[in-house]
Structure formats: C-alpha cells, structure tokens
Amino acid sequence: MRMRKRFVIVGAGVGGLATALRLAHRGHEVIVLEKTGVVGGRNRSQTVNQCEFDGGPSLMMMLDPFRKLFEDVGERMEDHLQISLCDPSYRVFFRDGSQIEGTPNIARMVDQITKLCGAHEAEKYPKLIGDLGELYRESIPNFVRTNYLKAREIVAPGQLWRVIKHGMLSNLYKKIEKRFEDPRLRMLFTFQTMYLGLSPFRAPFVYGTLTYMEYGEGIWYPQGGLPAISDAIAQLAMDRGAEIRLNCPVARISGKEVELESGEVLKADAVISNADLPYTQRKLERQPTPPKYRNSCSAFVLYLDYEGPLPKLLHHNVFFGRDYRDNLEALFGEPRMPDDPAFYACISKRSEPGRAPQGHENLFLLIPCPNLECPWTETAQESLKAQVFQRLADEVGFDPSRIRGMEMRTPEDWSRELNLHQGAAFGISADLFQSAFFRPKNRSLFDKNLYYVGASTAPGNGLPMVLISAELLEKRLIHDKVMTDGYVMPDFSENLPEEASWTRE
Description:
CATH architecture of the largest domain: 3-Layer(bba) Sandwich
Distance between the termini: 42 Å
Helix content: 25-40%
C-alpha cells in the first residue's frame, strides 16, 4: 500500500499551482499558502475601471509544457483553455520610422524582410529558422528537461557533442550579427532574451530557442488573458483535493513545517517553496550564508484605460530605442535609467474585445528598467513615462489627455508585493553561469525535505519553464523517495467548500 504524503507549498504562483495539481493528482494531501488574495503570482490580472489586463506575463509561447501538464493529470488543455494564434505575432517599430510584423508564416516573413531590408537579407531567413528549430529540438529534451543530479550529466559525450555542434555557448548577438548585415534584423532576432531579463549581448546562443518559439511556433492567447492559465490549474488542483489558502503569509519554513505569520504551524512530509528563491533562502529558510545571485532587470509597468482608438497598435507591439546596445547596457551593465527606452505595448482587446468597454483600449505598457541596485525615484518614473508617452504620440497618435484611468507597478512594487529580490521582475538572471547545470537546483542544500519550484530554480523563468520546473520537481521527489512513482488512492471527498474561493479579483 502506497502512503499518502502531506505537502505544504508556499506561494500560489504558476509553479506552485502546477506542483499542487501534480501532487494532488497522485492522491497526496496538498496545502498551498498564498500571502495575497489571488492565485497566479506574477501571472495575475489587473483591472482599471472596466478594463482588464494581464498583470505580468502577456505572451503564451511553447505550448508543449502547457499541454503536457494537463495530459499528465488526465485532462485536455483544450477543455480548460480556449487559445488562439496571434498572427501577426507583433508589430515592431524602429526609431528610423520603419516597421515590420513578426509572423510564424515563413513565406510572409521572407516577403516582409525583403520589403524592409532587401532580398539579399531575406534569403537568409529560412536557414535561420531551420537552424534555430534544430537547436530547439536538441536543447529542450536534453538540457531543459533534466534535473542534473550528477555532474557527469553535463560532460557526457552526447551532451558535449550537442553543445559543440550547435555552438550553444557562443554569444547570441555575435552569431546573429554574422548572419545579417541590417542592424534592425539583428535586433529583431535577439531581443527575445529580454523575456528572461537577459541581455542578448550576454546571452549564450542556446537562447536562440526563444526566437524559434516566436517565429517557428508562434505566439498564442488564452481567452480571459494569461491569468486564465493560473485559474484553470488552480481549479483542477482543488478538484483533486488540494487546499488553497489565500491571504496567508508565511513567516518561516523548514522541510518538515511551515510557520505562518499568524503563529499557526503546519506539519508536512516535505515543504515546497514557490516564493522567489533569494527571498526563500534569506527570509523564510533563513540560511546562515545564503548564495548571492545575479538578478535580472526589473520592469516599470503601466495599465491604462484609454478612450479612443489606437488602430496602429496590434495585440503585441515592440518599440526599439535609438541605441540598442546602450539601452541594454543601462539595464545589465552599470545600472542606470535608459535614455530613449525600448518598451513593449499590449492591447489584449485585439484578441478579446470584451476586455475593454466599447470605444476604449486596455493599453498595457512594459518598460524594462534596472532592478533596485539602481535606486528607483519619482524623477526616474516620470521621465520614463514621459518618454514613452511622447514616442506613442509621435508614432501611433496617442494622446495622454484621453487616459481615463491608470495604475502602475514599479520595481519597488515587485519587491514589496511579490517578494522579488531587488525588484527583479524576472527573478534571478538566466545568464550562462545561472543556466542548465549551473541553475540553482530544486532542493535545499541545508534541508533535505525542503524543495524549490518556479522561475528562479531549474530550468529557468518564463511560464513554459516554470511548468517544466513543476514537472522536474515531481521527478525529483520520486528520485528522492519522498513519494513513489505509483499513485495512491485519491480521496476527493473533502474538497474545499464553495465559499473558500481562490478566484482572482
């Protein structure tokens, strides 16, 4: 008879929820503790007046980890999420006034590159996508979906051959620079590392897989926005008996118990932290000498209820500044506020009209900025906002007087609300020596019953990686004999009562 274990999970971000679902599906007792009043962590909603926004992530890419989570618990993703392809993926605005629309359609992409840069550049594109596709198919199963429990896994002959064959550790920007002469294309095929809070000038070529995800597989949108993913996972976890406690901040953890700020102590067979890893190790686990990590950049986010149409903006839009390298150095070098910042603009109403009233746009603006190593000031805040508003006014007809409501999230908010160390919106950096084998592992070095899941542990940040993180943790728990590979008999007779709602506000 297989024993039913008790797991306490700290944090109801996507990693914590996916782990809860996997463990509850195996019939284990699962309690999820969340300090805020909603599930999702960074992947939560934001409302301004009657406009609805994705509070954090706004891109759904790499569908396989999403599908696999649902399939592993006997469900179909399509029964819980209604998704649609965004095509064009996004519109890109360059500082010279030129534009291009990204698309997973190779023929259309070749045509657009021809019009923008000439046939001599366009003819190189199919080979780029082919090479990046091969890189993707080699790296995901062999480097991403592994726990790296033994050092010899990274130096195994097969692994080393893959690294050498594809030049995985070479510099991403330099590899793209050799292929394309036009600086606009170099930006277009390297900026994706920003999704990880990482500069392409410092990123290994293996992160070209992000470019392939966009152009080879496309960008998707779930009805209800990205928080619908968190909601669906949370509901399935609860359906299988998991308990989700909201407004339940945690004071201290070990591998066998969790102490709440209320003073209540919960016992467990193992504890799993989905909180930001530096915060977990410093504040919750209280390690005597916590590791020092290189953190990602932060983000200044604006949520605008805008009255009037902005027809030049698609669902997803990217605006590059004048000096690509200098902009990134401001974020990842000696930190400072960028001059002429690059930024991302999103209007999810384009894919789901009901997310904003008729005649209004739900305009989401994300401006990458340094983390709190560079002190956040009101002067910096107003400067960034003014520059972005002016750029939008010049290029898409934006009028600040038409703003009917506005909320903001700053690096200080990321730190205070979600316990992200130094306000690093993307968690710890995904640079070479904090990736793959060098990424922090998913078990504490100080407590064998304390585990980690989420963006700052293996394999990395971004929603697909976080879902894989939960999958890897499940395998780790089996490997460590915390639970078996078989299933215990589920008991769903004590599900949460209806009034104990986790639903996002």
